[in-house]
Specification:
With about 280 residues, the chain is an alpha+beta fold. The protein folds into 2 domains: about 70 residues; about 190 residues, Alpha-Beta Plaits, CATH 3.30.70. About 50% of the residues lie in helices and about 25% in strands. It has 7 helices and 8 strands; from the N terminus they run H-H-E-H-H-E-E-H-E-E-H-E-H-E-E. Strands 1, 2, 3, 4, 5, 6, 7 and 8 form an 8-stranded mixed sheet that branches. A hairpin with a 2-residue loop joins strand 2 and strand 3. The chain is elongated.
Length: about 280
């Protein structure tokens, strides 16, 4: 009986010892598990905050990228390119094109540093770009001192394109009346621009795969360039076709300039858009 009793006490002690060890290990494992869960929860929460912040940064970068894309190409062209759709050239029956340049630009360049010329063009184009937001006009390109915008492409707007371009030209003229060259210029320069405007058919398309550009081609572009080059500083030179579109609106005043020879078109009647008349913003209905 004593041996049985001793054996039972031994087994009981072993049982208690095992139970104690299991309890201690369970407590340790439970604490470790809780700590791991807390650490994991903290990491998940921290990662969620980082992901949210990165998502906001990505959305901001995407917005900047899209904004830059829309400044380089019309919105519907950008969407088509993103969707891997073929972008073909498109013919337009009537658009109005504005082209300007700086009078005696080459001579001005010889009197000033390259930095000063760059600052001048950048300053001017920034002012011009702000005006494009007021009207249905699309900036097509800048080449040296030449600045080109159009209306009626790629979204057609009836005959409103002539009104938008003429009002845009008058705004540019008003800006130039009080324009002062940047401080980086080595001397005070009198800056005058001459403007040519023509309405007619053209073909538009996207050129290039790297840094693609939306370009216009046709006699209308050539005519606008000729009107610009045969114009005068501080004057807005418009063609007869543009004049015919705006003459009955009551919003613009023009002065007949005379005939100008256009390569491929012969002599055409042209006009000065009268910049001396204060004109209210027209209705395009």
């Amino acid at each position: 009986m004593l041996e049985i009793r001793k054996d039972a006490e031994f087994q009981f002690n072993v049982y208690l010892t095992v139970q104690f060890i299991i309890t201690i290990v369970s407590i340790i494992l439970t604490i470790w598990y809780i700590v791991c869960i807390e650490n994991m929860t903290f990491k998940i929460a921290n990662n969620a905050v980082i992901i949210k912040s990165k998502s906001k940064e990505l959305a901001a970068e995407k917005s900047v990228t899209e904004s830059l894309q829309y400044q380089m190409l019309p919105k519907k062209i950008v969407i088509a390119l993103k969707e891997a759709q073929a972008v073909t050239s498109e013919n337009f029956e009537y658009v109005t094109i504005f082209i300007s340049d700086i009078v005696n630009f080459t001579e001005i360049g010889t009197r000033n540093s390259a930095r000063g010329i760059i600052d001048l063009l950048n300053h001017l184009y920034a002012l011009f770009d702000k005006q494009t937001k007021k009207y249905e006009v699309l900036k097509i390109e800048t080449m040296g001192d030449s600045y080109m915008v159009a209306s009626g492409v790629p979204d057609q707007n009836g005959i409103a394109h002539a009104f938008h371009i003429c009002k845009f030209a008058l705004d540019i003229h008003n800006i130039m009346k009080g324009y002062r060259v940047p401080t980086t210029f080595e001397r005070k320069e009198s800056i005058k621009i001459r403007i040519g405007i023509h309405s007619g058919p053209c073909t538009a398309g996207v050129l290039g795969l790297k840094m693609p550009r939306y370009c216009l081609f046709g006699q209308t572009v050539n005519t606008a360039k000729t009107l610009k080059s045969t114009g005068r500083g501080g004057k807005i030179h418009i063609s007869n076709s543009t004049y015919q579109m705006i003459k009955d609106s009551g919003h613009f005043a023009v002065l007949e300039r005379g005939n100008v020879m256009i390569k491929g078109n012969g002599a055409i009647k042209t006009y000065w858009l009268d910049t001396a008349v204060q004109i209210s913003r027209p209705s395009y209905n």
